Every structure is written in structure tokens, then in C-alpha cells.
Amino acid sequence: MSLAIRLARSGAKKRPYYRIVIADSRSPRDGRFIEKVGTYNPLLPKDDNNRIILLEERIKHWIGEGAKPTDRVSRFLEQAGITEKKGDRKNLKKGAPGKKAVERVEERNKRAAEAAAAATAASEAAAAPVPAEDSAADTAEA
């Protein structure tokens, strides 16, 4: 049986609260677990002591038994000084915009640059002095 140290979500809608649990890696995220070894409340400020609570002795015991922490839990354990930093983290690109969004931003920037160029050209044309000959001819015709 492969063990995982992972987060199990609880709490109300839009009010998450996580338990840090030892579970069989095949069991569902919020399903059956072996032992609760901590809590994580993301709604609390980052400097609050109750944001992340860990039972260090039990976590060390389960790591000795072969439990593997998930990426998020391993970050918590590193901050607490229980484990050392590992370089094999996944750097997911979920937050990066998609192709269509990038195209829309580029199109918007292109249109803004064209509008700015047209505005500067119009202001330069308005600021240019009117030749004296043309103005004299216009007044004589009127």
C-alpha cells in the first residue's frame, strides 16, 4: 500500500478548510484516511500561527514508513523544517493565460499603438504653422 500525506478538503462552499491526512494513494481526496496529522486554513493571514498546524512526530513517523507528501504538503513541511527542499516539484502552468487570451491582448495592444500613433500625427498636424501665403489668399477670396 502506497501512502500519501495530502490535503483533504472540508468546510463550506467558498470557505475552504483542509485537513492534512495520511491516506492510501488510491483512496479519494476527501475519502477514507488513516490518520489526521494537521490542518491548513487558507483564510487566515499568512503570519497567523493557526494557519498551518502540524503534528511533527506523527509526520516523521509516517515519512519513515514510506509516506510521500504531495507538492503542497511538502512545501508546508519545508517551512516547518521537517523535511528538506526537493528540486523535483511540478511547476504547473495553470495560471498562465491560454492562446486565445494572449492573442486578444496582442490585438488590443496593437490597436492601442495604432490609436496613439494617429493621435500624435493629428496633434503634430494641428501644431504645424499655417503658411502665410495660403492664409492671405483665403482672406482675399472671402
TrEMBL record:
<dbReference type="InterPro" id="IPR020592">
    <property type="entry name" value="Ribosomal_bS16_CS"/>
</dbReference>
<dbReference type="InterPro" id="IPR023803">
    <property type="entry name" value="Ribosomal_bS16_dom_sf"/>
</dbReference>
<dbReference type="Pfam" id="PF00886">
    <property type="entry name" value="Ribosomal_S16"/>
</dbReference>
<keyword id="KW-0687">Ribonucleoprotein</keyword>
<feature type="compositionally biased region" description="Basic and acidic residues">
    <location>
        <begin position="100"/>
        <end position="113"/>
    </location>
</feature>
<dbReference type="InterPro" id="IPR000307">
    <property type="entry name" value="Ribosomal_bS16"/>
</dbReference>
<dbReference type="GO" id="GO:0006412">
    <property type="term" value="P:translation"/>
</dbReference>
<keyword id="KW-0689">Ribosomal protein</keyword>
<feature type="compositionally biased region" description="Low complexity">
    <location>
        <begin position="114"/>
        <end position="134"/>
    </location>
</feature>
<dbReference type="GO" id="GO:0015935">
    <property type="term" value="C:small ribosomal subunit"/>
</dbReference>
<dbReference type="GO" id="GO:0003735">
    <property type="term" value="F:structural constituent of ribosome"/>
</dbReference>
<protein>
    <recommendedName>
        <fullName>Small ribosomal subunit protein bS16</fullName>
    </recommendedName>
</protein>
<dbReference type="GO" id="GO:0005737">
    <property type="term" value="C:cytoplasm"/>
</dbReference>
<comment type="similarity">
    <text>Belongs to the bacterial ribosomal protein bS16 family.</text>
</comment>
<feature type="region of interest" description="Disordered">
    <location>
        <begin position="87"/>
        <end position="142"/>
    </location>
</feature>
